Amino acid sequence: MLARFNIVTNPTHTSLPSEFSFKPNEKQYDPKFHQKYQQLVGSLMYLMIGSRPNIGFAVVKLAQQMANPSNDHY
Q1: Where are the alpha helices (DSSP H) in the chain?
Q2: Span 6-20, pLDDT tens digits
Q3: pLDDT tens digits for 18-43?
């Protein structure tokens, strides 16, 4: 999945801090980017439900940005 969405990351065993929050996107989103973001969040939800409940908090935080995502959210 990381390769599909061109995400380069270092594996970590820590979860997202509970006080974490995104800054809202002030700019208008690009429709193609918006669709790609939706696909990413949907794929993460699939993983969360099927085998990785420990990523639930992070996935919910990403899903909260679905209306107007930015590159920082991605």
Answers
A1: 31-50, 56-63
A2: 877 766 655 667 777
A3: 777 778 888 887 888 889 989 999 99
Tokens 């065993």 sit at which residue? Answer: 13
Give the whole-angstrom CA distance, residue 32 versus residue 74: 13
Q: What's the token pair of residue 11?
A: 């594996």
Reported pTM = 0.70
Q: How far apart are CA 51 and CA 60, in angstroms?
A: 16
Give the long-range contacts of residues 30-34, CB within 8 A, separation 24 or more. Answer: 33/69, 33/74, 34/69
- All residues at 6 or more sequence positions from 47 whose CB lies less than 8 Å from its CB, including other chains: 1, 55
